[in-house]
Write a structure and sequence with these properties.
This protein is α/β, with parallel strands linked by helices. It has seven helices and seven strands. A five-stranded parallel beta sheet has the order 1-2-3-4-5. Bound molecules: zinc ion (2 copies). The site of one zinc ion has 6 residues, from loops.
């Protein structure tokens, strides 16, 4: 994976849809905005559904019944905008070993070509959101789950690797240790980290926020690569290219190798079970 300096092509692999219950705009509005904003690649990566066995209903992700509609809609936009914007179908998913086989099969069945690792929770019941991390034990749980997911080989990118700073008050030694663990695992597994710009818009955070300068200093030292992601929950984010371009300059200045494209996998291996 070779890093680059300066922008060759603007790409964004982190785009949501209204199916996750906390985003705005039609699917096509995101593609039109990407086209107008000069994005060559627009990856949709809405919050993955899960096949809950206990009747749990999440309020922040698409229900399982919408996965087919989501995949069809993105595939049809891919055809419609061919030659203008390279629209890709992905998902943003947590790492739950009990659902790993299901996720691999769902990706194959629906033609999902990339997966972002959105390490929001370490349990499908969504207790203890890592964005509200406030203790050392929260940081350890976050880093441990990140390491597990990274080494699963499922994911093409770790989204907002510094998510814990949304809740944690100040980047301290414990944050540094967690950051080192996450970065070392990402480097060992060859997975790029996302420099996630949505934290700039987060007005309800409890902690210092992200992108967290302390985290990215560790990342630069650990030699990981990074990709810029908007985490767009509304189409207008794709029009704000100045922030994207500043992020690129910032990563270049830190000496962090940057990737613009995630591998386009035709199909991921099916589960063995
Ligand atoms: Zn979201
Ligand atoms: Zn997201």
């Amino acid at each position: 994976m070779s890093g680059r300096r300066g922008i060759r092509i603007r790409t964004n692999y982190h785009t949501h849809t209204t199916r996750c219950l906390h985003a705005e705009g039609t699917d096509e509005a995101y593609v039109r905005a990407a086209d107008a904003g000069g994005f060559g690649v627009l990856g949709f990566s809405d919050h993955s559904p899960w096949p809950y066995r206990d009747g749990f209903e999440s309020g922040i992700r698409m229900p399982l019944s919408q996965l087919g509609d989501y995949a069809r809609s993105v595939r049809s936009l891919r055809e419609q905008y061919a030659g203008k914007v390279d629209v890709r179908l992905g998902l943003e998913a947590e790492y739950y070993p009990e659902f790993e086989g299901w996720l691999r099969d769902a990706c194959r069945e629906h033609g999902v070509s990339f997966l972002l690792f959105g390490n929001h929770f370490d349990n499908p019941g969504e207790e203890g959101y890592f964005g509200y991390a406030s203790t050392v034990s929260d940081l350890r749980r976050y880093a441990a789950r990140a390491e597990m997911g990274l080494s699963s080989g499922l994911f093409d990118c770790l989204a907002h690797p510094d998510l814990f700073m949304q809740g944690y008050a100040r980047f301290d030694e414990n944050c540094r240790a967690a950051s080192r663990d996450v970065c070392a695992a990402a480097r060992a597994c060859g997975v790029p980290l996302e420099f996630n710009l949505s934290g700039f818009y987060n007005t309800w955070r409890r902690g210092a926020g992200y992108p967290a300068p302390g985290f990215w200093q560790v990342a630069a030292k650990e030699g990981v690569s990074a990709i810029v992601g908007l985490d767009a929950h509304k189409p207008a984010r794709l029009a704000e290219c100045e922030i994207y371009d500043l992020a690129v300059q910032h990563l270049d200045a830190l000496g962090i190798p940057r990737v613009e494209l995630l591998p386009a996998q035709a199909a991921r291996p099916a589960s063995i079970a």
